[in-house]
Each structure stands twice: as C-alpha cells, then as structure tokens.
Write a structure and sequence with these properties.
By secondary structure, this protein is an alpha/beta fold. It folds into two domains: 217 residues, FAD/NAD(P)-binding domain (3-Layer(bba) Sandwich); 122 residues, D-Amino Acid Oxidase, Chain A, domain 2 (2-Layer Sandwich), CATH 3.30.9.10. Helices cover 25% and strands 24% of the residues. The chain has a seven-stranded mixed beta sheet. A six-stranded mixed beta sheet has the order 5-2-1-9-16-15, covered by helices on one side. The protein has a three-stranded antiparallel beta sheet with strand order 6-7-8, with no helix packed on it. Strand 7 and strand 8 form a beta hairpin. Keywords: Oxidoreductase. Pfam families: DAO (PF01266). GO terms for molecular function: oxidoreductase activity.
C-alpha cells in the first residue's frame, strides 16, 4: 500500500472535516482515532455558529466569518457523500449585549415568552446545527469516500499514537498496529493533544419544550444559552448550557450544576418550568491560554501541523479550519491571516 500524503490524528469534527477537504483536493489521507470517531467534544456541543458572539476574541472574527460563508457548501458536500440532509436548526439569535451597544426595544416581539430582566438584547443573523445530526452524516460521508469512489479516506478507529518522528521530508507515525510514513502529520486531537491545550469541561442538558413555548430563536447571555432544535429527530427539544470548568478530564455530570443551568434558563423563559428533562452530559473543549485555536506548523517540526484548540467554537470553525489548513498544507495562499493562531505564540 502506498504511503499517504497526510496522516491526521483525531476523528472529531476538525479532523474529519480536514480529511474530507484534503480528499476533495485529490490527496490521500489516513485518519487515526484513539477511540471512537465523533465521540467527544464534537457531539457534546450546542451547535451555534456564533461568529458574532461579543464574547469571542476579536482576533477570531475573520476566521469565523469565513467559516459561516463556507457552511452551506460544507453541509452540501457532506450530504452528497452521505445521502443525509443536515438542516440549519435556527436562523437568528437574541444576544444579550452591554448597555452601550445597540439593542432591540422590544425583544418580546420576537419571543413573547421572554422575560429579559436587566438584559438588553440584540438580534443576530446567526444559524445553528444539531451536532449529532452533523456527526452522523460527516462520519458516513468519510466512510463513503471509499465505497463511492473506490479511493477514499482511510479511517482507523481504536488506533492510538505511540510515537511521532518528523524529519525534513516526511513524518513517521507509530501505532500498536504498525507504522506508516506521510508527507505531513496533522494534530486534531482536541483536549488530548500534546499541544499547549487543556480540557475545559462543559456540562449541559436537553429538555422537551412545552407546547406553550414553540421556540425558534436561540437565546444567549454571557452565562446561559438556550438552543432549540426545530428539524430532525430532536425537533421540539432545546439544549441548555453550559458550564466552563477547569476540571481536568473529569466528565462527571453534577446534578447541582444542571439544576443551576436550568434555573438560569427558566429565569429567561419561565415556560421552561413545564419542560420535560431529557438528558444531561459533559464534554471537554480544547482550550488555549488566549482562547484562540492553534493553526499551522510546529516551529521546530514544520511537517507536524496543528489544527487544534478551538475551545467553544469547534462546530463553527470546522469548515474554515479545513479550508485554510488544506491551503497551508498544499502551499497555496491562505485566505485568512493565520498570525493570531501561530503555534509559535506559546
């Protein structure tokens, strides 16, 4: 078997999106996943494409806007390969803003059940997806590259890395099942990366909305968000989140934290008191010290490339990350200035 052009470690949304983009460009790709694909932060997220969230770092804005512009084509490509339609769940967000920002005089005109309290809200043209729908379709798309085209992405589950040796012309990767060489290695391992990222735990819950609350708009403050599902198997539910915790690799869900999140959401939408609890869970976001992703070659090993550290914006940034990292790997001019995301900043 010929050696691949690229080896990607990590089969979350960043790793698989990059694999699809490289494959679309004609490259041969192997994806190594230590456990089960799409089983960690990628499916624990709420799915907001929050490019204009005022709490995002300013340096993230250009990359985020490129990503939202790429999203329709990104979903279409996945749907073409998987046969699964991935709808946008919402098209607008009521965002709590500071007193000096522009705000709606009457947000209740959009969501009559809203009790703003001291919050002022602006209306953002912002969409969301259901990460569980996206994960299923993306994984199917990756697997179908081999069935449909006879030449496809080689996804190897339950295959952890044991050693990486980067030389001037290639990278050697060793696993318990053997070793392989490639032109480049790309680290998409999320919170489990040896890169300067750390796990940032988030707990959240899902509820079934009462008939008195046919919510179609995301509601978000600095402390809480409520994200309705409007299409697909989870239609009629809402996702409420999320905590932000430095708790290492602990994935335990604490009832007191879930009750606190639910109470904060119910203060904004009192009808949520009648909502039925469905489930709660926790995920580990890969965070950096400045809350910006790490994109680019390692300063000491240029064939070791990082695409990691997306913190709360992995779903949002997946298409743009795949696009710009593929451009970088193939020696093209990159559409976004990657200086703010340079691995050498740490």
């Amino acid at each position: 078997m010929a050696e691949p052009d690229y080896v990607i470690a990590g089969a979350g949304i960043i790793g698989l999106s990059l694999a699809l983009e490289l494959h679309r460009r004609g490259a041969s790709v192997v994806v190594l996943e230590a456990g089960t694909p799409m089983a960690q932060a990628s499916t624990a997220a709420a799915g907001m494409l929050a490019a204009d969230d005022p709490h995002n770092p300013i340096a993230l804005h250009a990359l985020a806007k490129v990503s939202t512009s790429l999203y329709p084509g990104f979903l279409d490509h996945i749907s073409d390969l998987s046969g699964v339609r991935i709808p946008f769940q919402t098209a607008s967000t009521l965002q709590a803003v500071s007193p000096d920002a522009d705000f709606l005089s009457d947000p209740k005109a959009l969501v009559p059940q809203l009790e703003p309290g001291s919050h002022r809200f602006s209306l953002l043209d912002e969409r969301s997806v259901d990460p569980r729908q996206l994960a299923e379709a993306l994984l199917m798309a990756v697997r179908n590259t081999r069935k449909i085209e006879g030449r496809g992405i080689d996804l190897r589950e339950n295959t952890p890395l044991t050693r990486i040796a980067a030389g001037p012309a290639s990278v050697r990767v060793e696993t318990p099942a053997g070793s392989l060489s490639a032109g480049y290695f790309v680290d998409c391992m999320g919170a489990w990366s040896p890169a300067p990222v750390a796990p940032r735990k988030g707990q959240m819950l899902a509820v079934t909305l009462p008939k008195s609350l046919p919510l179609k708009t995301v509601i978000r403050t600095e402390k809480i968000y409520i994200v309705p599902r409007t299409d697909g198997p989870n239609a009629g539910r809402a996702i409420i989140g999320a905590t932000v915790e430095n708790a290492g690799y602990d994935l335990k869900v604490h009832p007191v934290d879930i009750l606190t999140l639910n109470a904060q959401a119910t203060a904004l939408l009192p009808e949520l008191a009648e909502a039925l609890f469905v489930e709660s869970w926790a995920g580990l976001r890969p965070a950096t010290r400045d809350d910006l992703p790490i994109l680019g070659p390692s300063p000491r090993q240029p064939r070791y490339v990082l695409a990691n550290g997306h913190f709360r914006n992995g779903i949002l940034l997946a298409p743009a990350t795949a696009h710009v990292v593929a451009q970088l790997l193939m020696g093209e001019n990159v559409d976004v200035d990657l200086a703010p995301f340079d691995p050498g900043r740490f």
